[in-house]
Amino acid sequence: MNWMEQIHIDKVQTELNRFLNKEVYVHLETTNGAYASHFDDKAYNVGAFIRNAKVTYQHAKIVGINGAYRVGLKMDIGWVYAEGINQYEVDNQNRLLMAGHDREGRLMVTLEISETPFSY
Amino acid sequence: MEKHVVVIYPHPDDEAFGASGTITKFRKEGIPVTYLCGTLGEMGRNMGNPTFANRETLPEIRKKELIEACKVLDVELQMLGYRDKTLEFESRDEVAERLKGILEKIEPSLVITHYPEHAVHPDHNAFGAAAVEAVSRMDKNKRPTVWAQAISMTHIQDLGEPDIVNDITPYLKTKMNTILAHKSQAQGMISKMKQDSEDFEATVKARLGTESFYTWKF
């Protein structure tokens, strides 16, 4: 099994470039869990995900330092953006999986790019 | 004595935290138990600690954990193939009809599920509501009893004390083993409990030693 590694900015940039000007499928998600306001009544439950958005981007960049990275994909008529990315892997289907986890290993944000649809 | 018990929860590990002591008690009495698990918890955010799962590998990992947990509990498992977080958007009518069909085949004497609107997670509330709806659509003299589990902070204030309170401390070990079978999900909770208290065993007993339910009134 591949395990996610810490971000290496040059390696991730190379992977992002691999999908330039191609029709790709994107999974983009952020969440603080379904129990946030259960355990803390002052907290809000917030989350969003989009799975298998079909996009083409012309330009992509990963920016950041010290374990806190942002990724932006520039499309003809808009952007895809994720903040808080700290790990990545290229899985056995050659998909680029990027994610941000908190200290307990819980996923806070993920941005994934694939040339074939993600399971649904 | 029950004839057959059906447990209806949406996520792998809901059965472990919610009802594994009660299930173990039934199994010790030789009563068949079937778990209808709605999803594979595909959208869970616990990825193990340190992380060993990602969004794409999580479903298969949780499926294996679920099968393992059902072995620990010695229950039959049916995976219903809905997607985590989306149950409340499915047609209530369709989900209820599907559950009704399964229940009519199994003919249980008891159904355990979540208490709609008092089960915190939207999937819990939606699946609990569909389960209650399914049973309500059954022929009156074939209807199983329903035990609904409420976990909201305000459930006692809103609903009163639950009428079914099971002391499951004799089965605590099986309960812990069931929870631990869900490795990707359990680590977070276990380490939080270890962090919160000096006497881990006492904390486990206090937090996991009782399972309570409200008998649904149709």
UniProtKB/TrEMBL annotation, chain B:
Classification via SUPFAM superfamilies: LmbE-like
Cofactor: Zn(2+)
Signal peptide start-end: none
An MF annotation (GO) of this entry: hydrolase activity, acting on carbon-nitrogen (but not peptide) bonds, in linear amides
Record protein name field: Bacillithiol biosynthesis deacetylase BshB2
Native species: Aquibacillus salsiterrae
